[in-house]
Automatic annotation (TrEMBL):
UniProt protein name: Nucleoside hydrolase
One Gene Ontology term, aspect cellular component: cytosol
GO molecular function, one term: purine nucleosidase activity
Species this protein is from: Acaromyces ingoldii
Domain Inosine/uridine-preferring nucleoside hydrolase: 8-389
Keyword Hydrolase belongs to the record: yes
Lineage: Eukaryota, Fungi, Dikarya, Basidiomycota, Ustilaginomycotina
Length: 410
């Protein structure tokens, strides 16, 4: 199986679905893309910045990852007070999850302190939030990759966009545009209700100003919102399939099963989801691994469009599909009942007068066209779940083999 090497950065707020997104970022691969996860940063969101950081360290420890990936970012939104989401993710952000270390365990401590060196010896239990060090590290990483002629980094963001917005605002001109190819985020809701207000989705609601900065930046932004994440439900059948992979030689499957079981109960209680919880954040990483899973069947009149249709699979009998579309997306930042809403201009009612036809704009590749006022985001609208879950189980098996190989060598 061949695939393009792809450098990733994951900014997250674990969070049950973040934990699954992290699994895919670490162990996922497709026939198209072999990702390398270069770093993980934590942000406030599903719980306090303290707890999301500790949770990221606990998950990295559970996945048997060599310490050195984790950075602690912002604890608070750019302009607002922090919120937490105990109702969905439990008291500490990973409620009900079994088999994880605590913040004082050696393995978790090593994950938390790997980038801070001797500070750990001063007796601090958990490092302080340090978004400036995170941004400095990212800028240096991007500069180094640009200088060495390495491929661009893809940033995947599965929490509030505070850290990403800080990077975009503080990095020297050109570094992000040269060093990052796209920002793929879980957030927003395209044409469907929100989940934390009638209109707004949580990640955008928590820091709408940061979201506006990201959606206004002249770089491709891909939005995996509730409209698509609610199409990918982790059903009882999938849960049974996961449990069937149980091995007595490691506890990883138990941990993953407990993540999905708690999330299923939360979604049943809070939102009445009877068929299973949506795996939200997982989809953002899945898009990077295989964008063709997010192609839609072409409508008859779209078969002749050369700008956006392609056949998936390569055979002559393949169904023509169209890649996800770009739309103008406005982030509502005014206080009021619509704050945090992602307004998607599906019918080009806001299109600037210079953009005469959708095809012309779709083919437009200038950086400026991604700014606010242009068609500034690719909005995911379809997902082929029959291809999505094999990606998940493949990553689970790789993770399980990795954890077992470490156990065997200890
Ligand atoms: Ca998240």
């Amino acid at each position: 199986m061949t695939g393009e090497e792809k450098a990733l950065w994951l900014d997250c707020d674990p969070g049950h679905d973040d934990a699954i997104a992290l699994l895919l970022a670490l162990f996922g691969r497709s026939s198209l893309v072999h990702p390398t996860l270069l770093g993980v940063s934590s942000v406030h969101g599903n719980n306090t910045g303290h707890n999301t950081f500790v949770n990221a360290a606990r998950m990295l420890d559970a996945y048997g990852v060599e310490p050195g990936l984790l950075w602690r970012g912002a604890d608070v939104p750019l302009m607002r007070d922090a919120k937490i989401d105990e109702g969905i993710h439990g008291d500490d952000g990973l409620g009900g999850v079994t088999g994880l270390g605590t913040q004082t365990d050696e393995g978790v401590q090593r994950q938390m302190y790997a980038n801070l060196g001797p500070v750990a010896e001063k007796g601090q239990v958990v490092p302080e939030p340090d978004p400036l060090s995170l941004v400095s590290h990212l800028v240096e990483l991007l500069k180094r990759r640009i200088r060495d002629g390495q491929g661009p980094l893809t940033i995947v963001a599965t929490g509030p966009l505070t850290n990403v917005a800080l990077l975009l605002k503080l990095a020297p001109p050109g570094v992000v545009q040269q060093g990052v190819d796209q920002i793929v985020l879980m957030g927003g809701a395209a044409g469907v209700p929100g989940n934390r207000t009638p209109l707004a989705e949580w990640n955008i609601l928590v820091d709408p100003e940061a979201a506006r900065i990201v959606f206004s930046y002249p770089l491709p932004t891909v939005m995996a919102g509730l409209n698509i994440t609610h199409q990918a439900l982790f059903t009882d059948t999938l849960h049974s399939q996961l449990v069937s992979l149980y091995s007595s030689s490691d506890s990883l499957i138990d941990t993953l099963a407990s993540i999905m079981a708690f999330f299923a109960a939360s979604y049943a209680d809070t939102f009445g989801f009877a068929q299973g919880p949506p795996v939200h954040d997982f989809l953002a990483v899945a898009y990077v691994l295989d964008p063709t899973m997010f192609y839609a069947h072409a409508k008859p009149h779209q078969h002749t469009s050369s700008s956006s249709s392609s056949s998936v699979g390569g055979g002559s009998g393949d169904v023509a599909r169209v890649s996800p579309k770009r739309y103008r997306v406005h982030i509502e930042t005014n206080d009021g009942k619509a704050c945090g809403t992602t307004i998607v201009d599906f019918y080009d009612q806001w299109a600037p007068p210079t953009e005469s036809s959708p095809d012309q704009v779709d083919s437009e590749e200038t950086a400026a066209s991604w700014r606010e006022g242009g068609r500034n985001a690719i909005v995911l609208e379809h997902v082929d779940t029959e291809r999505l879950w094999p990606l998940f189980f493949d990553a689970v098996k790789r993770a399980q083999a990795h954890v077992q190989s470490q156990t065997n060598t200890q």
